[in-house]
């Protein structure tokens, strides 16, 4: 397991020379782009490589030899100055005396091959794991210069006014830059040259790299802002990760986890405890302080939590023969400072582990030749269970197989190469000017885009206003319509309320046994009105106010009824049927057979109320009595007719005999 923390928060470019020479014509490079998961590969020219770096702004440009990217020191400094603000050049093979890339890759478990693309990929992966040194030619001091963006002219009537305007713009922009530096709480010094009531220029020396300064290089109208980093006297190498020696780690697990870091010589390097940190936090804290050879606990057997940490680092484990007593732990840590008992127990475990391996560490040190890393050999012997001799033999074989370290000494340039270098600088200046013009054009395009966006927004607002007005008009029309419907509904309600009152009166007449019916209305009877003697009219009357047995039914037009219509009416068993017009014979016969009285409506004095009516009880009884007399006479006539028919039939039979 690699114990290095990852530096990867963006892509890493791994670069190795593919063909040609940076000092000659048209070198090509193997480029491996590593994003932490996948690697994309390409072969690019030097110009395309620079363009990709500018466009994608990788976190790191990694190489095994920085002079594969620049012919000499001056070109290397120029290359470093042209890198984007957040991009670093990293030499993964070391500083002034680099190691072979194959040895570095093997040490950190990174795949390696001798092909340029394999070396480029190995460089990218190593840099992503914080292996190597950042190549720096600049300090963390940056100069921000605000000055005139154009000439003040060659004279004329308005030259002074024109110059004052330019210097006023420089002063205004300088104050804006100063305000931005103040807001960012950056330390700076200001040097101003005043002229014509304004500033000829203002120089800010800021103690911060360009990435931390909230001001960008630009040129706009009368003012330009230039940003330059302060150069060093030479090239400096900064390790990406601090050196982390091999150490012994003591851990006291529980609700509060404590960790102690002790060197192989028995010196307590650091101690820490926390109630809230998880396993990942503990591992990260340990990784930042060393590479564990032994993970120790103060109790036996080793707790499962401590065992997990041991396996994470592939380290050896140590536990005492029996649990360490408190008085022994206090005595062993008496010369150390700690915040709580958990830190004390962790320190005691680590110190006792060092004591237990002290003789072994000393034997290993005696067997090592000069120049061999003691910590690496000790780690492989203690944790890997290898012999010292086997480890030394393995290291010697690696050295024999490795390439010779690359020489990083720049050579003297020829006159032709110097001319080429000058021409390239001129091209760079012209390209910078072109970029300035393009930036100005981009600014104008941005202004046009802003104005078009404002115009579009105004048009959208106008359309919204039109839609709003239309919606208001529609809602007003709807409100007027609803008000009319409300007024009509109120009128209908009033009509229905009056009708309900009348129907209540009729209901009281129909239910005269209620005590609230007045005596003067007791001689009246309700009459159910049927407009025509048809099935549809009968059903409609039944739906509107109901036809029940014992009702008085008034047929406003009694003509034209057939058998089925008469049967339908007879099924309701009315008390009496009052009619206007003549009944059909079939209907008369059916009603007669069902003993339903039928009488003329003219014999009854009725008062109609909408679809209902009332009549005098005496008139209704008179009609019923009259029908009964007529019915009796009709039955007698039927009997006489039947007797006559029988006599006639009997006589006819005798005559035939």
Walk me through this protein's architecture.
This protein has 16 helices and 21 strands. With 657 residues, it is of the alpha/beta class. Strands 1, 2, 3, 4, 5, 6, 7, 8, 9 and 10 form a ten-stranded mixed sheet that branches. Strand 4, helix 2 and strand 5 form a beta-alpha-beta unit. The longest helix is centred in the C-terminal third of the chain and has 96 residues.
Which features characterize this protein?
10-stranded mixed beta sheet, 657 residues, alpha/beta, single chain, 16 helices
Chart the SSEs and their pairings.
Blueprint: E1 12-19, E2 28-34, E3 39-45, H1 46-56, E4 60-63, H2 73-82, E5 88-91, H3 101-107, H4 116-128, E6 133-148, H5 159-183, E7 188-195, E8 198-206, E9 218-220, E10 223-239, E11 246-252, E12 257-263, E13 268-274, H6 279-287, E14 291-296, H7 304-313, E15 316-318, H8 326-332, H9 341-367, H10 374-382, H11 388-401, H12 415-510, E16 524-530, H13 535-545, E17 552-555, H14 563-571, E18 576-579, H15 585-593, E19 598-600, E20 606-609, E21 612-616, H16 617-656
Parallel strand pairs: 1-4, 4-5, 11-14, 14-15, 16-17, 17-18, 18-19
Antiparallel strand pairs: 1-2, 2-3, 5-6, 6-8, 6-10, 7-8, 9-10, 11-12, 12-13, 16-21, 20-21
Helix proportion range: 40-55%
> How far apart are the termini?
140 Å
Give the overall pLDDT as a whole number.
83
Radius of gyration: 56 Å
How does the helix and strand content classify structurally?
alpha/beta
State the total count of DSSP E strands: 21
Number of helices: 16
Which blocks of ≥5 consecutive residues have pLDDT under 50? 1-8, 402-409, 512-520
Describe the main β-sheet briefly: 10 strands, mixed
What spatial form do the alpha-carbon principal axes imply?
elongated
Strand content: 15-25%
């Amino acid at each position: 397991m690699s114990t290095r923390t990852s530096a990867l928060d963006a892509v890493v470019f791994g670069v190795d020379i593919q063909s040609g020479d940076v000092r000659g014509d048209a070198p090509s490079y193997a480029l491996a782009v590593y994003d932490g998961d996948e690697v994309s590969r390409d072969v690019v020219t030097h110009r395309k490589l620079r363009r990709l770096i500018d466009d994608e702004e990788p976190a790191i440009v990694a190489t095994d030899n920085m002079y594969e990217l620049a012919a000499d020191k001056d070109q290397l400094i120029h290359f470093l100055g042209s890198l984007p603000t957040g991009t670093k050049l990293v030499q993964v093979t070391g500083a002034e005396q680099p190691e072979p890339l194959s040895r570095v890759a093997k040490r950190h478990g990174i795949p390696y091959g001798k092909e340029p693309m394999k070396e480029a990929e190995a460089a990218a992966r190593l840099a992503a794991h914080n292996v190597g040194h950042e190549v720096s030619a600049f300090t963390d001091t940056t100069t921000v210069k605000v000055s005139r963006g154009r000439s003040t002219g060659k004279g004329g009537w308005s030259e002074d006014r024109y110059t004052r305007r330019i210097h006023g713009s420089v002063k205004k922009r300088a104050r804006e830059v100063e305000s931005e530096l103040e807001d960012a709480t950056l330390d700076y010094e200001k040097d101003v040259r005043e002229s014509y009531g304004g500033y000829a220029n203002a120089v800010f020396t800021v103690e911060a790299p360009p990435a931390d300064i909230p001001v960008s290089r630009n040129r706009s109208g009368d003012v330009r802002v230039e940003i330059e980093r302060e150069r060093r006297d030479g090239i400096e190498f900064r390790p990406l990760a601090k050196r982390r020696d091999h150490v012994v780690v003591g851990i006291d697990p529980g609700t509060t986890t404590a960790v102690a870091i002790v060197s192989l010589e028995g010196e307590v390097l650091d101690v820490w405890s926390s109630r809230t940190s998880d396993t990942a936090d503990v591992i990260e804290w340990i990784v930042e302080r060393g590479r564990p050879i032994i993970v120790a606990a103060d109790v036996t057997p080793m707790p499962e939590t401590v065992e997990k940490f041991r396996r994470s680092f592939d380290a050896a484990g140590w536990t005492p023969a029996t649990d360490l007593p408190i008085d022994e732990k206090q005595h062993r840590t008496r010369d150390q400072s700690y915040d709580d008992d958990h830190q004390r127990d962790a320190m005691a475990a680590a110190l006792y582990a060092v004591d237990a391996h002290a003789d072994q560490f000393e034997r290993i040190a005696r067997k090592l030749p000069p120049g061999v890393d003691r910590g690496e050999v000790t780690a492989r012997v203690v944790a890997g269970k290898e012999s010292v001799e086997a480890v030394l033999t393995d290291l010697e074989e690696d050295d024999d197989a490795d390439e010779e370290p690359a020489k990083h000494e720049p050579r003297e340039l020829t006159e032709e190469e110097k001319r080429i270098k000058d021409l390239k600088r001129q091209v760079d200046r012209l390209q910078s000017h072109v970029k300035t013009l393009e930036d100005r054009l981009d600014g104008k395009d941005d202004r046009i885009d802003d104005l078009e966006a404002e115009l579009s927004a105004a048009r959208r607002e106008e359309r919204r206003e039109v839609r709003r007005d239309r919606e208001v008009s529609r809602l007003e029309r709807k409100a007027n319509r609803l008000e009319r419907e409300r007024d009509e509904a109120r009128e209908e309600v009033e009509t229905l309320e009056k009708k309900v009152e009348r129907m209540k009166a009729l209901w009281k007449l129909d239910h005269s046994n209620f005590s609230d019916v007045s005596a003067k209305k007791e001689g009246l009877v309700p009459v159910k009105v049927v407009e025509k003697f048809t099935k549809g009219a009968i059903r409609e009357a039944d739906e509107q106010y109901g036809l029940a047995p014992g009702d008085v039914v008034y047929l406003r037009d009694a003509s034209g009824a057939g058998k089925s219509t008469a049967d339908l009416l007879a099924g309701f068993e009315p008390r009496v049927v009052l009619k206007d017009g003549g009944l059909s014979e079939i209907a008369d016969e059916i009603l007669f057979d069902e003993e339903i009285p039928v009488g003329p409506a003219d014999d009854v004095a009725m008062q109609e109320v909408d679809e209902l009516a009332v009549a005098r009880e005496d008139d209704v009884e008179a009609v019923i009595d009259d029908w009964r007399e007529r019915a009796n006479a009709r039955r007698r006539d039927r009997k006489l007719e039947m007797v006559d028919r029988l006599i006639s039939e009997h006589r006819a039979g005798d005559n035939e005999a």
